[in-house]
């Protein structure tokens, strides 16, 4: 009795162990239009003869456990194959190899696939449990931002994963390409781009795609890493030497996300640090000596703050009108001017005196016989008028000529040369 039970158990276990179907992989994510391989192998009792082999997919409204047959994706009797799958499947048809290739997958192929075999025996029916779950990635791709801290924003130091995929799934087939701000990231070839400790330098727009397909390139997705102000620096306008009376603008520049909300300006003079302003620019409309000193700014946003380096402003003095030195210089210049004028005046005066004396002598000599003095008067007036524009030689020549011309004048009445000459000299002096 015991022997019989043992024998039956052995027989049963042998029978049971003979029936099996194994699938690999059990989950597949494929691109729309691509081909998928359902890798599969099976076992059945040696004493049986295979009758039918089929792959089926339960309808969406059916149980997905393989208990309901649904539609035939592949069948050893070709006429049993569903229209949707005809000419799209390639069955391996080797002994105990149930691998199936499915071409041109689409969204309608999404579902679970099972392999079932039957034999010539009454109880020779077996369906591999579990099946293969097929998902279809419907383009376009998009970059999904996933991070460990689920709440709120991404901050520096967080762990962030960008996934290149679709709503449904991410095919493992690659290689992938990643772009940051439209520049290729040469080392990123996986569907996932991981940042263990994200930095402010990772801030930017990301897109991805399949290396061999432009079609899959995505829109840009911003990796919005938030960080406290960086590179806080002061720029000075105008640059160069700062003189008293100039206007001066100091600007606090920084890189921050989100943008800086508060700027604070400080001035250090000796050991005194004083608050001087609270906008991005610190403007001094008219610089004076008291603005001399060191300045720095602090930029602050929601995350934190940073100080700028210290900027030294040196105000250069300017010699302004009203300054003693200027007055002295002006006085000197004035005195020098007066001196020069006096010298010129004296020289001119002396020359005129000489010229007039000589002229009068000549006139007197030439008119010894004459009694008329009017021509002489006219003559001196001429001399005076020409004085300014004539050189010394011209002047003398002219006088001679004029004197000469006078010789032609017809002699007239009385003799009063000296008095007229003296009067004329007086006129000249007063005018000079
Ligand atoms: C089954 O067939 C497929 C496709 O022909 C092949 O790639 C695979 O190696 C086969 N499996 C076994 C176990 O022979
Ligand atoms: C692939 O399937 C789509 C429908 O899902 C069809 O329009 C297309 O023509 C098929 N492509 C090929 C190469 O058979
Ligand atoms: C990211 O893209 C948006 C929209 O296209 C653009 O406004 C922004 O300037 C981009 N950012 C960077 C860092 O390139
Ligand atoms: C890309 O952006 C454009 C404009 O915002 C939008 O119309 C389009 O649907 C987007 N494409 C994808 C793949 O997200
Ligand atoms: C920053 O500026 C806002 C408004 O401009 C103000 O309410 C806030 O008190 C300021 N914070 C600091 C720390 O100065
Ligand atoms: C520091 O400077 C500010 C403004 O320039 C002034 O009001 C304050 O009295 C000074 N403090 C000391 C300790 O000198």
Written overview of the protein:
With 432 residues, the protein is an alpha+beta fold. Among the domains are: 121 residues, Immunoglobulin-like (Sandwich), CATH 2.60.40; 82 residues, Immunoglobulin-like, CATH 2.60.40; 88 residues, Immunoglobulins (Immunoglobulin-like, Sandwich). It is 24% helix and 34% strand. It is built from five helices and 28 strands. The strands form seven sheets. Strands 2, 4, 5, 8, 9 and 10 form a six-stranded mixed beta sheet that branches. Strands 22, 23, 25, 26 and 27 form a five-stranded antiparallel beta sheet that branches. α2 packs antiparallel against α3 and α3 runs parallel beside α5. It is rod-shaped and about 155 Å long. The structure holds 2-acetamido-2-deoxy-beta-D-glucopyranose (6 copies). One 2-acetamido-2-deoxy-beta-D-glucopyranose binds next to β17.
Map the helices and strands:
Elements: H1 2-18, E1 20-24, E2 27-31, E3 36-43, E4 50-57, E5 71-75, E6 89-91, E7 100-102, E8 111-119, E9 125-127, E10 132-137, E11 142-147, E12 154-155, E13 160-165, E14 176-180, E15 183-184, E16 192-195, E17 204-210, E18 221-223, E19 225-237, E20 242-243, E21 248-257, E22 262-269, E23 272-277, E24 281-284, E25 293-300, E26 305-307, E27 311-313, E28 315-316, H2 324-366, H3 374-386, H4 392-406, H5 417-431
Parallel strand pairs: 2-10, 12-19, 20-28
Antiparallel strand pairs: 1-3, 3-7, 4-5, 4-8, 6-7, 8-9, 8-10, 11-13, 13-16, 14-15, 14-17, 17-18, 19-21, 21-24, 22-23, 22-25, 25-26, 25-27
Helix pairs in contact: 2-3, 2-4, 2-5, 3-4, 3-5
């Amino acid at each position: 009795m015991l022997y019989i039970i043992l024998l039956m158990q052995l027989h049963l276990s042998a029978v049971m162990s003979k029936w099996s179907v194994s699938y690999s992989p059990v989950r597949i994510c494929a691109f729309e239009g691509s081909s998928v391989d359902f890798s599969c192998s099976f076992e059945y009792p040696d004493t049986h003869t295979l009758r039918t082999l089929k792959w089926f997919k339960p309808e969406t409204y059916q149980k997905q456990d393989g208990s309901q047959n649904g539609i035939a994706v592949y069948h050893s009797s070709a006429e049993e194959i569903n229209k949707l799958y005809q000419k799209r499947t390639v069955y391996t048809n080797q002994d105990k190899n149930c691998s199936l290739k499915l071409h041109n997958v689409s969204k309608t192929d999404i579902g679970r696939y099972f392999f079932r075999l039957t034999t010539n025996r009454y109880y020779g029916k077996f369906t591999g449990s579990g099946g293969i779950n097929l998902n279809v990635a419907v383009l376009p791709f998009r970059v999904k931002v996933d991070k460990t801290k689920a709440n709120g924003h991404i901050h520096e130091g967080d762990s962030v994963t960008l996934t290149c995929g679709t709503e449904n799934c991410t095919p493992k087939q690659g290689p992938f390409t990643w772009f940051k701000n439209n520049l290729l990231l040469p080392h990123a070839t996986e569907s996932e781009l991981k940042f263990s400790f994200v930095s402010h330098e990772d801030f930017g727009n990301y897109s991805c795609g399949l290396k061999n397909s432009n079609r899959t390139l995505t829109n840009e997705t911003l990796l919005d890493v938030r960080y406290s102000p960086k590179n806080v620096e002061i720029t000075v306008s105008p640059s160069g030497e700062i003189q008293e009376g100039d206007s001066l603008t100091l600007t606090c520049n920084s890189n921050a996300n989100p943008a800086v909300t508060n700027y604070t300006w400080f001035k250090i003079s000796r050991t005194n640090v004083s608050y001087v302003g609270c906008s991005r620019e610190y403007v001094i409309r008219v610089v004076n000596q008291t603005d001399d000193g060191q300045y720095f700014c602090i930029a602050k946003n929601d995350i934190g703050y940073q100080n700028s380096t210290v900027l030294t402003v040196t105000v250069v003095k300017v010699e302004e009108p009203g300054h003693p030195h200027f007055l002295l210089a002006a006085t000197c210049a004035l005195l020098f001017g007066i001196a020069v004028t006096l010298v010129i005046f004296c020289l001119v005066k002396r020359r005129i005196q000489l010229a007039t004396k000589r002229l009068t002598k000549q006139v007197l000599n030439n008119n010894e016989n004459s009694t008329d003095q009017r021509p002489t008067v006219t003559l001196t007036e001429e001399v005076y008028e020409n004085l300014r524009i004539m050189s010394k030689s011209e002047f003398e020549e002219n006088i001679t000529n004029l004197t000469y011309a006078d010789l032609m004048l017809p002699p007239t009445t009385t003799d009063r040369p000296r008095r007229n000459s003296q009067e004329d000299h007086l006129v000249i002096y007063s005018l000079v």
